[in-house]
Amino acid sequence: MKQFNTENLLLTSNSAKKLYFEYAAGMPIYDYHNHLNPADIAANKQFRNLTELWLEGDHYKWRAMRWLGIDESLITGEASDEEKFMAWARAVPRLVGNPLYHWSHLELSRYFGIEERLSEENAAEIWHRCNERLQEKSLRAAGILQHFDVRVACTTDDPADDLAAHGRIKDNDQITAKVLPTFRPDRALNITAPGFIEYMEELGRAAGCTIAGYEDLLAALKNRIDFFHEQGCRLSDHGFGEFPFERATKRETGEIFAKALRGAALTDSEENKYRTFTLLRLGEMYYERGWAMQLHIGAIRNNNTRMLETIGRDSGYDSILDYHLASSLNAFLNELELARQLPRTIVYSLYPYHYEMLATTIGNFQSGESAGKLQLGSAWWFHDQKEGMLQQLKALSSIGVISTFVGMLTDSRSFMSLPRHEYFRRVLCRLFGEWIEEGELPADYGYIGGIVQDICYHNAVRYFGVS
User: Which fold would CATH assign to domain 46-139?
Assistant: First the structure.
C-alpha cells in the first residue's frame, strides 16, 4: 500500500515550511478547551483497542460513515470493535476532500508511526499493529498528553461535579500535564430543559444548600465557582443555540425561577430573561475571580428525533444555526462593561458568516486590561478544518489583531485529537507563508516566527495566567 506523506501537508510555500518546521512544530500544546474525561487521565487509562481510542464518541467519524451508507450497527451499534474499525477503514479512502482524510492519516502517523494509507486491504494489519502498541505507557491516557508535550489541558465540567478526578491528577506527580477543570453551567441556565428541577436538587447538594429560590441559586453558583477556583479553574464555558438578551430585574427573574420550580411552563420571553440575567451575574462572578469566559454560540442539536430516541444525545445529529447575533451580543457585553465587570471573553460562532461581525463586536470592548481581552474564538466544530480556519484567521487579521490570538484547541472527547493542533499550525504557517511570498509581510522569519509561536502557545499562557 502506498504511503501518504504528511511531512509537507498544507505547507504550500518555502516560507510556510520554514515557519512551520523552525518555529511552530516544536511548540508545546496549550489545549484550553476539550471534553476529555479527567477520570481517564487520573487512572492513566490503557485503551483496550484502537476502536475505543479512535472511534468511540467521535461524531465527526460517525457522520461521515452514515453519509457513506454504513449501517448504524457498525458505528454505534452492537458490532464488535474490530468490525467497527474495519468499517471505518473501508470509509477512509472515500473521504477525499474531507478533513477526516488528513486527520486520520496524521493520527496514525503521530501516534503509531504508520505512514501507509488506511484502506480495507491493510486494515487487519494496522488493527493488530496499533493494538500491540497500545500496551505502551506512552499511549495510555496521561502518557499521550506527555508524548505530545501538552502543558495545560482544560476539561469541561458541570458545577455539581466533585472534581475528585482532578484532585487525583493534581496529587500524581507522574502526570506531567496540568489538567484543570472548566466551569460549564449550561444545566443551570437551561431553565426549560427536561430535568431542570432535579438538577437544582443536585446542584444544591453539591453546594451544601437547598435551592428554594433564586437567591439560593446565585449562592449555590457562587459556592461552586469558589470550589472550582480552589481546584485551579480559571475558565468558564457556555453553549447556546441562539444567544439570548432580554433585560429583566432581579425580582422578575426570581418570579420566573419560582414558576419553573413549580413545574409551570415558561414563555420564550421568560426563558430569555432568566438566561440573560443569570448569565450577567455569572459574568460578574468570573470577573471578580479573574476568570475568562467562553461563549460557544450557534449549534442546533439532536435534530434527528428517531435517532435521538434510539441512541441518545450528542451522537452526531447536530447542525449550524443561522440567525442574527450582533444586537444581543453587543448588548450583553455592554451591560458587563457598564458595570466594569466584563471578564476576558472568547466568542465562538458555529455560523462562519458571523466572523466579521464578531471581530467588529469584540473590537468594541477591548481595553488596557490585557492584549486581546476579547477574542474571536478559533474555527469551531464543523469549521476546524483548512477552509474554516483560513476564514476565521483572515477575518481576525483584517478586522482585529491576529498577533494577540490565543490559538487552537481540540474541543474533543478523544485522546486521538491532539494532532488538530499540528493541523492548525500548518494552516497558520501556510497563511503567513503566503503573505511573505506575496510581499505582504517581510521575509523576517525571526519576527514572523515569533508571532507564530505566540499564537501557538505563548498568548494562551499570558491570557489564562496558567502555565
Answer: uronate isomerase, domain 2, chain A (1.10.2020)
Rounded Cα gap, residues 343 and 375, in angstroms = 11
Average pLDDT on 157-174 reads 97
Same fold, 14-45+141-464 and 46-139: no
Half-sphere exposure of 57 (CA within 13 A, CB side): 14
CA pair distance 174, 44, nearest whole angstrom: 10
Instruction: State how far the Cα of 220 lies from the Cα of 209, in Å rounded to an integer.
Output: 7
* DSSP codes, 261-308: HTT----HHHHHHHHHHHHHHHHHHHHHHT-EEEEEE-EE----HHHH
Per-domain residue ranges of the chain? 14-45+141-464, 46-139
Residue 308 has a pLDDT of 86
Distance of alpha carbon 186 from alpha carbon 240, whole angstroms? 8
Question: What angle is formed at CA 138 by the lines to CA 150 and CA 28, rounded to 5 degrees?
Answer: 20
Strand 299-300 to 319-320 pairing: antiparallel
Which fold does the domain 14-45+141-464 belong to in CATH?
TIM Barrel (3.20.20)
- Quick one: which of 449, 392, 414, 455 has its CA closest to 153? 414
CB 429 within 8 A of CB 421: no
Query: What percentage of the chain exceeds 90 in pLDDT?
Result: 96
Say if residue 315's pLDDT is above 90.
Answer: no
| Residues 329-386: tens digit of each pLDDT | 999 999 999 999 999 999 999 999 999 999 999 999 999 999 999 999 999 999 999 9
pTM: 0.97
What is the rounded average pLDDT for all residues in the chain? 97
Instruction: Please check whether residue 34 is in contact with residue 411, taking contact to mean a CB–CB distance below 8 angstroms.
Output: yes
Strands across the sheet containing 178-180: 29-31, 150-154, 178-180
**What is the CA 399 to chain-centroid distance, rounded?**
24
C-alpha–C-alpha distance, residues 419 and 21, integer Å: 15
The per-residue DSSP string of 96-111 comes to: TTSHHHHHHHHHHHHH
pLDDT band of 1, cuts 50, 70, 90: low
**Distinct helix (H) and strand (E) counts, the chain:** 21, 9
Angstrom distance (rounded) from CA 436 to CA 444:
9
Torsional class of 10: left (φ above 0), alpha (ψ -120 to 50), beta (otherwise) = left
